[in-house]
Specification:
Elements lengths: L24 H21 L3 H8 L1 H5 L1 H8 L7 H17 L1 H14 L4 H5 L7 H16 L3 H26 L4 H29 L5
Helix pairs in contact: 2-8, 4-5, 5-6, 5-8, 5-10, 6-8, 6-9, 8-9, 9-10
């Protein structure tokens, strides 16, 4: 994934390791689950458009750090873990919409699955289109089919990962450093997609806690 994050600070993914280092794991786990559940229930029970838009744009004003402090250490297959991954994916897209749209387009050219249909990006795909997809996916968590929103995010991540792999393969002979970085980012996006798919499956069986 991208090395930096936008607003108000820029930091590497390794900084996530420092969150809540001294907290009691049991208390932290319960707190993260409670906050995620309370937020989601409150908004989905009364989906006020203004509230939803504030939640969609929350990290634009407060930074991804604020969300990370709540949910980044949660299990990948949990409600807070799912919310964190959607916000993280949106932040990564908004940090580099031009690059993301390029990789997504490259992936869409060679993908043999229905992921491009599921992701729902308008074509031709440009920076504005990928930002719009990210926002619509996040809105879908709060005012729509939660599992479908997770599946859309997973599909988008998979197609983008394919595109990164394609570019990495092409660059391997001339720029092995860039090729290696893109391969690592593609792997992390693929892992993210698998986690979101698992969360969607759990949500459909009322098992996502």
């Amino acid at each position: 994934m991208a090395a930096d994050f936008h607003k108000p600070t820029r930091f590497t993914p390794s900084r996530f390791d420092g969150y809540f280092g001294g907290e009691d794991p049991a208390i932290l786990s319960r707190t993260t689950h409670d906050t995620a559940s309370a937020l989601l229930s409150r908004v989905r029970d009364d989906p006020d458009p203004e509230v939803i838009e504030r939640l969609v744009a929350y990290t634009d004003a407060n930074g991804i750090d604020a969300i990370a402090e709540l949910w980044s250490h949660s299990s990948a297959r949990s409600l807070p873990g799912a919310l964190w991954r959607i916000y993280l994916l949106r932040a990564l897209i908004r940090q580099d919409p031009d690059g993301t749209s390029y990789y997504y387009s490259r992936g869409a050219e060679v993908s043999t699955t229905i992921d491009t249909v599921v992701a729902g990006a308008a074509t031709p795909v440009g920076a504005a289109e990928v930002v719009d997809v990210a926002d619509r996916i996040l809105r879908g968590l709060f005012a729509g089919d939660f599992a479908v929103a997770l599946d859309r995010a997973a599909a988008f991540a998979r197609v983008t990962a394919i595109g990164m792999t394609e570019v990495a393969d092409a660059a391997d002979a001339t720029d092995d450093i860039r090729a290696g970085e893109l391969t690592r980012r593609a792997l992390r996006l693929s892992e993210l997609a698998a986690e979101l798919t698992s969360c969607a499956r759990l949500w459909r069986t009322d098992s996502l806690d």
